[in-house]
Amino acid sequence: MYWGSVSEFLAMGGYGLYVWTSFIITALGITWEVLALWRRRAAALADSHGILRSTE
Amino acid sequence: MNWSKYSAPLAFYPLAGKMIPWFSVVAALAIAVGLYIGLLVAPTDATQHDSYRIIFVHVPAAWMSMFLYVVMAIWAGIGMGLNARLSFMMAQAIAPTGAMFTFIALVTGCMWGKPTWGTYWVWDARLTSELILLFQYAGVMLLRTSIDDLRRADRASGVLALVGVVNIPIIYFSVQWWNTLHQGASVSMTAAPKMAAIMLTAMLLMTFGFWMYSIAVILARVRCVILERESQPAWSNPSAAPEVAEAR
Question: How many domains does chain B have?
Answer without folding.
Answer: 1
